[in-house]
Each structure stands twice: as structure tokens, then as C-alpha cells.
Amino acid sequence: MRLENDHNTSIDPSEPVTPNPEKDEKDNQPKKTLADTIQALGQTNVPAHESNIFTLSIIGQIEGHVVLPPQNKTTKYEHIIPQLVAAEQNPKIEGILIILNTVGGDVEAGLALAEMIASMSKPTVTIVLGGGHSIGVPIAVSADYSFIAETATMTIHPVRLTGLVIGVPQTFEYLDKMQDRVVKFITAHSKISEEKFKELMFKTGELTRDIGTNVVGPDAVKYGLIDQVGGLGDALNELNRRIEDNKKNKNEQGVVQ
């Protein structure tokens, strides 16, 4: 007696069945469920749309030369730098969108990221959502154009140092020079004056445990720190406009040459 399966092929029950180890192994592998995807990626599915815009998120605390505790949500600068280099070299990437919601962190690591973003040849736009505090301020102003949400805030305060200090005068001079680097970078990449920025930095009575100022979205634009109040759609529209302008400029240069 011969049997027929769904594919209309004959099967003789008396014939020995040849095992297929590859098929058995594939069948035994656990299938990824929706819950596994949510747990691993924080989303139900991965968007398959290929975009010409590279999106970089800087969230939590910016981690520098010291590894922070595991319960801290961090952005590791050694992970961000290779991504920026790859985005600069990739011909399919025509613009970079940087999204910030950070409490700040390591000063030198934050300045390194800000310098890299500022030196990119491709159009860049930053948007502050939630907060762009402390060393997040230089990163927020490092792009070609910056946005801030209406309810977002930016904390401006002097450079601080935690831990054991050996040689107070020398350490104070080092911190003063580092702070001067931060101030000069911010004033060079935004419309705020150095006098106004230092006035906000050394303001007393506003922060409970520190001197400085907590600047809300519209005030950041009023002071010249950020270019415009807006959201994600505004940032993408501005970035796409700059991408088109960049293409036109390259075409015109090619014609002239």
C-alpha cells in the first residue's frame, strides 16, 4: 500500500525514512515570539525602510573613561565615535539626525562627540527632547541647525569634579581651562554671547544643589543657545532641506569645474 501526501508524491510505509538532521535542527530551534522582540529591542518590529538619514540617539548619562554602574542608562562615547565615522564615509547616508535626552556626563567624552559632529561634512541637525543638560549642551549646539521641544530643558552649570582631589590650586586651574573650552565651543557654535552664557552658568538661587540655570525650550531660543523650538517633523524637514541644498551645491561645483 502506498500513501499520498499533500504534494501528491507517493510514500511507501515499508520503506525506511531517511533522517534529515538539518531539518530536525531547524524544527527544534525556538521561534522568536513577539515578546522576545519586545524584550530585546523594545519594539514590536524592526522598520525595514532604508533611509538616507542616519539617526543617532544620545540618552541617559554620557560615559567617559570610567565605566558607570549597570543600573545607569548610558551612552558610551567609544560606541558613538565609530558610528559617526561610518556615517561620514557611507555614500548612502546624506544627513545625520542627533536626538538628545541626556543628563550630561563626562566632559571630555561629551566634547569629543560635539567636535566630531561639528566637523562632519554632511548636513547635521540636533533635537533636544526631554533634556540636554550639562555637557549635553555642546552636543546640542554642535550641528548645523538645532531644535528643542517646547517642554524640554537644558541645565547650564560650571564644570564639577567628584572624588579625591590632590593639589587643589593645580586642579582648580585645570578645571578652569576645561570650563573655558566648553564655553568657547558653545559660543562658537551658537548665537549666545560669552557674557550671557557665563551669566547663566554662575547664576545663584535657581538650582537647589548647584549654581547655574535651568533653561526651558523657548528661553533657550531666546538666549540664542538653540536655533528653533520644534519637534521631530520640524527637524526632519530642516535636515531634508539641507540635504537638497548640499546636493545642489555639489552639482554647481561640478559644473564650474
Feature tags:
about 260 residues, alpha/beta, 2-enoyl-CoA Hydratase, Chain A, domain 1, 2 domains, six-stranded parallel β-sheet, two-stranded antiparallel sheet, 10 strands, about 20% strand, ClpP, ATP-dependent peptidase activity, ClpP/TepA, Translocation-enhancing protein TepA, ClpP/crotonase-like_dom_sf
Question: Helices, strands, pairings?
Answer:
Elements: E1 3-4, E2 10-11, H1 21-28, H2 34-41, E3 53-63, E4 74-76, H3 77-89, E5 95-105, H4 107-118, E6 124-132, H5 136-141, E7 145-148, E8 153-156, H6 168-188, H7 194-201, E9 213-216, H8 217-222, E10 228-229, H9 232-256
Parallel strand pairs: 3-4, 3-5, 5-6, 6-7, 7-10
Antiparallel strand pairs: 1-2, 8-9
